Amino acid sequence: MSDAPVVVGVDGGGTKTDLLVVDAPGTVVGRASGGGANWEGIGTDAVGEVLGGLLDEALGASGRGRTDVVAWVCCLAGVDWPSDALRLAPVLDGLGVGGERVLLNDSFAALRAGTSGPVGCVSIAGTGGVCAGRNDRGEVARTMGVGIGEGSGAWTLVSGALDAVAEAHHHSGPPTALSERFTAQFGVEGVEAFFEGVTRGTVPIGADLAPLVLEVAAGGDVVAEAVARDAGDRHGRDLAGLADRLGMCDEPVEVVLAGGVHVHGAGPFREAFCDAVRSRVPAAEFVVLDTAPVVGAALLALEIAGWPAEAVRTALVEAVAGVV
């Protein structure tokens, strides 16, 4: 066993949680992955069980114990409101981990994983959508992530596409290749049969249809292109508004793009997103996240401990290569 101090970074989503143990030189000395840690889906007690198991596995591999931790950062899905932090505090207290603890929404892990320093913004467009940011004064802000008055990731694309297909059927909008693709996807004869299935529950509409919408847009269908552009513009305006709240519009800002829609949405979606951001944040610099968000949680923990962080980014990225 070693009593050399370490930090811990945790990125907990709805289905998977990654945990890293890092020492002062910036070496990953322990890592573990397990089930989701979103209290909304599994309950607060189960979050404690997931984190406890991962701590034992990763700290055990490093030869340390929980009291050897000098700082740990938990970035967890479902930490959306101040009441959520209060709800989870007793659970985290009960784990007996030493050092300073910071509990954040998991969007902040993705933010720090993609930026070259503590300052920047992130737009996450996956199944849902959220933006988060931190300015050079250490102030943080986040969109609500409720899908009201903001982009909803893949759902923004899918709902826009459904509107377009229905409008084409009603002749209140132009025809679109989306109609044929959607009906073929579910093996139904015609748009009316498709929407009958939607309304009666026999045609399951989900966020997994977003790649199809992007594919049709990339193929040159003008209606699908408009749907993709509208979605990209919505997410871009969300990010620009966040930057304005943090007073970052008149300075260079790294903007991290994370989530499946951003990663695979090159073309009309990406173009519209970037245009909307640059309309208010002219010096925005866009970076597509290409590493596991847990790297960001570990970097945040290193910064809290006062240890070198950015200098060891490459080593952290290499250590988690393959973690998704």
What structural category arises from helix and sheet content? alpha/beta
Number of distinct beta strands: 10
CATH class of the largest domain: Alpha Beta
**Helix fraction bin:** 40-55%
| CATH level 3 topology of the largest domain | Nucleotidyltransferase, domain 5
Q: Main β-sheet, in a few words? A: 5 strands, mixed
Number of domains: 2
Cross-sheet strand order for the largest sheet = 3-2-1-4-5
Query: Uncertain runs with pLDDT below 50, 5 residues or more?
Result: none
Distance between the termini: 30 Å
Shape estimate: globular
Instruction: Give average pLDDT, whole number.
Output: 95
Which architecture of the largest domain does the CATH hierarchy give at level 2?
2-Layer Sandwich
SSE arrangement, N to C: EEEHHEHEHEEEHHHHHEHHEHH
Count the DSSP helices: 13
CATH-defined superfamily of the largest domain: ATPase, nucleotide binding domain
Name the beta content range: 15-25%
Tell me the radius of gyration. Answer: 21 Å
Task: Report on this structure.
- With 324 residues, the chain is α/β, with parallel strands linked by helices.
- It folds into 2 domains: 6-106 and 293-319, Nucleotidyltransferase, domain 5 (2-Layer Sandwich), CATH 3.30.420.40; 154-288, Nucleotidyltransferase, domain 5 (2-Layer Sandwich), CATH 3.30.420.
- Helix content is 46%, strand content 19%.
- The chain is built from 13 helices and 10 strands.
- It has helices at residues 39-42, 44-62, 82-93, 107-114, 154-170, 177-186, 191-200, 210-218, 222-245, 260-264, 268-278, 294-305, 313-319, and strands at 6-12, 17-23, 28-34, 69-76, 100-105, 120-125, 129-134, 140-142, 253-258, 284-288.
- Helix 5 (154-170) packs across helix 8.
- The mean pLDDT is 95.
